[in-house]
Records
---
Amino acid sequence: MTTVERRFRRGVHWWQKGERRPHRRGADGRAGQHRRPEWGGGGTVRPPPERDATRHDRMMMIELQEVGLHYGGPRSGGAAGDGRPAGGVDVLRGLSFAVPAGGFRWLLGPSGAGKTSLLRLLHAAVRPTQGRLSLLGADIGRASRRELPPLRRSIGMVFQDFRLLPHLSAFDNVALPLRIAGRPEGQIRADVGEMLRWVGLARKTAARPAELSGGEQQRVAIARAVITRPRLLLADEPTGNLDDAQAERLMVLLKEMNRLGTTMVVATHNAALVERHPGPALLLEHGRLLADG
Ligand SMILES: Nc1ncnc2c1ncn2[C@@H]1O[C@H](COP(=O)(O)OP(=O)(O)O)[C@@H](O)[C@H]1O
Ligand SMILES: [Mg+2]
């Protein structure tokens, strides 16, 4: 077990030193154990008595009511006002589901089903063109332009196409969200160094994205998304460029973050990975939600 995994297991969030833990620690020192487990095999965890549930526990981190997303040309809305698209394409239609704080969902569906589009909505990168979307308690359709950037900074995103900044080293790409958050440089140096060691890139900290393989770039993108320990983590095919061993290590990290309170939605094509780590799933097809659970 690596240092990062051990620290996760001890419940010590090295990237969150001095900040409040999301959950009280139990008698054996393990944090978050009163939550209902969403992963198979965690049989000893019982749901909390009602009085123990904090507001944070009860909050819906993600809530969609009849959400639609239309790309491209304008919708018809004239005299008929029937809302049917006049041009462009309805990529997502009639999505209603919720993910509670601390919840986990796989996001499954064939290529072109709308997984990336849904994650863009959940990252507040686009607003729904229909219905109501609430993230971390904020109504995205009604939020002002100024409210969205701070909200987006509290959401971690592993992009399918990585979106690393080409002129920055691996170290500086991972450090960026910590620098934006104003963390002290000494802490950044230690935390980013440890995170890059954990993803197996200790010897590539100075490399720019163009000098890294696809798998290495993906690991930088993962490190950047989790380094601030976001309350909500979205990952778009995060194992697409990883080998089996690396994908398993990533799952250890994600499950431990989830156990400690991070809400997650992870899109994947990797059926073997989902089979090894069964959990509740949102199933998309042609922009519609076929299953939730
Ligand atoms: N910016 C865009 N403009 C128009 N259509 C888009 C855009 N982005 C995605 N689409 C279309 O939306 C559909 C869903 O795409 P996407 O969300 O990327 O699916 P997935 O991630 O499941 O493969 C596809 O048919 C795609 O062509
Ligand atoms: Mg996609």
---
Amino acid sequence: MELQHFGYCPQCLKTAYWQSDETKEMTCEWCDRTFVYDGEIDKFMDTDTNEIVKRKASDEMDRLLDIALNRYDTHVIHLNREQQQKAGFEEGQRGAFVTKENGQSLILLDGSSDENDRIIILSHELGHAANFQNDYKRDHKTWLNHVDLNRFNGAHSVMLREQSAWRYAHQLLKEVSFSNWNNFFSMVSYNIGSYYETVWKPYRAWFFKEYDQKPVQYFPDKEEFLKSLV
Ligand SMILES: [Zn+2]
Ligand SMILES: [Zn+2]
């Protein structure tokens, strides 16, 4: 993945690429267009119409991207299907929060999802970024260790971390005046439910076999969690 020359498309706010260091041209594959940056007026011009490019993406998206960069020092990269495969996205996965050893972080986002969904997915990944920065002080090693499923408390940590990300997401979306809450809650419900099935249930079964008793559960069940968000 070539990330050196990337920026945000002035029209759709997805990932676009500067053609080189010298030219002021930026190409967006999502919009299938090239724009020219005019430094004097700090605006992009459409090379076809010669007019100032108007943003089509929503204010919510604009503000979340701003929060990503300025509050959590995290770039957001929109991936097409081919790039998602290269990045190792699993079937149905639409976002990822990635940390590096030096404490840097990155959000990968399925650029082909519609904008309403992308806003919610981005808020969730930003929730991980907030968790990483506020609660882990950007310590990559501890961050990874806590969700290592081979460690004793890994499954607990994964569940807590996913719920934590949604709690932050809820706050962030309120902050950017988001309004599509039905959509938000159904996504949270689906997401927490699937972690419960794929992470918690297998752990519980393993624990039961090993110790002949159920493990203590430190996180709230889905319904209880959803209620706690409102
Ligand atoms: Zn675009
Ligand atoms: Zn997550």
